[in-house]
Design brief:
The protein is built from 17 helices and 9 strands. The chain has 415 residues and is of the alpha+beta class. The protein has a single domain, classed as Cytochrome p450. Helix 10 packs antiparallel against helix 14 and helix 14 crosses helix 16. Bound molecules: protoporphyrin IX containing FE (HEM).
């Protein structure tokens, strides 16, 4: 430890994303943490934190660390194969998260499923569903955007994207909200187990849907595309399809819910000219969303990786299994990265634009996420051009991963 570092207060005193102060204003804590160095040990999480964007980009690109939750030193023990339920089979056996070579194979062979053409068709199906949500809402004086709209969007887009028929929606709805709990290190074993059981039920439904789709004519959705890819590619099997669908649920549900809330909040806090510029085209919204995300600083943790063995890394010794968290959001209000970081400007230039990750694990749902947000924001401001916040929303301390709101009451000002 350097002399200067010895004079500093312990890190947990300057950075605690579960504190009330962080919830109200995370910026000072993020800046204070970033000042501690490139790779900082954070004892409360028993994890190293990567604070600098160039290091994070390099780590995303070259993958020196493992992305497999089961490589974490505190993960539940990997059960023997004969005891695997569908859940372990999906998450261990064919995991998209697991070894880099298999991951790259899966991403390469599934790339056609995310082609512009397929994504456009999926988006065309989501749009009427979003309109239906607003139709059902009607024209109340005040409503909770989180409850009435945001909460339903991840479910709509994921089921539409994958191609899960409506008859299965009630059964599968539960798992979309609990799936990420199956590997959440911060909750109880009981809660994780209950989420695991939900996931097993969801896998049964996904298998049923796959069986039905195998005998039904092909449709323009993700599942049909994946079944064609399965038939054409050695080494890509039904287990990979199930894992991929679970990954979409896991990675696409919470992120969308957070993004929905912050998009509405940030746009309403920053003036009508910003809203008009943001919603001018899907492309302008795409950039605006980077700014919404930067300005809001909603992350609490970051992206986890694990040391695959005892190893030297960025000048430190990592013990096997230790967690390393990449935290790109620490830079978001750093004046060395962004001029006037407190100013909200939807035309700000982002280089690099790494909101959706980078390299081999770049977000599969990026195009879909941005389009569904654009569609919802456009619909909101079209139906209620004078909408405003009905109150300053209270933040919800119960969410472990992100700063979110308990409710987001909007006054529609419709006459
Ligand atoms: C605004 C919403 C979203 C944001 C900000 C976001 C961001 C990200 C980021 C940063 C990563 C890289 C994570 C890492 O390196 O560990 C990622 C990965 C991923 N995202 Fe998203 N995402 C969003 C929505 C979605 C949606 C809607 C889906 C699917 C329907 C999705 C599916 C995925 C998947 C499957 C991965 C893992 C890719 C891989 O490991 O190859 N995401 N996302």
């Amino acid at each position: 430890m350097t002399e200067a570092a010895q004079d500093l207060p312990p890190i947990e005193e300057v950075f605690n994303p579960h504190s009330a102060d962080y919830l109200e204003n995370p910026i000072p804590q993020c800046l204070a943490l970033a000042q501690r160095g490139r790779l900082v040990w954070y004892a409360p999480w028993q994890a190293w934190i990567m604070t600098r964007m160039d290091d994070i980009m390099a780590c995303w690109k070259t993958e020196p660390l493992s992305s497999d939750f089961y490589d974490w030193e505190f993960a539940p023990k990997r059960p023997p194969e004969e005891e695997w339920s569908n859940f372990e089979r999906a998450l261990i056996g064919h995991s998209l998260l697991a070894d880099h070579d298999h991951h790259r194979l899966v991403r390469r062979v599934t790339a056609p499923a995310f082609s512009r053409n397929v994504v456009d068709k999926i988006q065309a199906r989501i749009e009427p569903e979003i309109k239906k949500l607003f139709d059902a809402l009607g024209t109340p004086e005040v409503f909770d955007y989180r409850e009435e709209i945001a909460f339903h969007i991840p479910f709509i887009s994921i089921t539409r994207m994958v191609g899960i028929p409506e008859k299965y929606w009630p059964e599968i709805k539960q798992v979309i909200t609990t799936f990420t709990e199956t590997w959440n290190p911060t909750i109880s074993d009981e809660q994780r187990e209950s989420a695991r059981q939900d996931s097993n039920r969801a896998i049964d439904i996904i298998k049923k849907v796959i069986d039905e789709r195998r005998s039904a004519p092909e449709q323009d959705d993700f599942l049909s595309t994946l079944l064609r890819i399965e038939a054409e590619n050695e080494g890509f099997e039904e287990g990979d399809i199930i894992t991929l669908i679970l990954a979409l649920i896991g990675a696409g549900a919470d992120t969308t819910l957070v993004a929905q809330q912050w998009s509405v909040y940030a746009l309403l806090k920053n003036g009508r000219d910003q809203i008009a510029k943001a919603l001018a085209t899907p492309e302008s919204f795409s950039n605006a969303f980077c700014e919404i995300n930067r300005w809001g600083v909603s992350s609490k943790m970051g992206f986890a990786r694990y040391a695959p063995r005892d190893m030297a890394f960025m000048g430190e010794h990592l013990r096997k299994g230790v967690m390393v968290l990449m935290m790109p959001h620490l830079k978001d209000h750093d004046p060395n990265y962004f001029d006037n970081p407190e100013r909200f400007d939807v035309e700000r230039v982002f280089e690099p634009d790494a909101m959706f990750g980078y390299g081999p694990r770049f977000c599969i749902g990026a195009a879909l996420a941005k389009r569904q947000l654009y569609l919802s924001m456009t619909e909101l401001f079209k139906r209620f051009p004078n909408v405003e916040l009905a109150e300053e929303p209270e933040r919800d301390a119960g969410d472990h991963n992100a700063v979110v709101f308990k409710r987001l009451l909007l006054k529609t000002n419709v006459s």
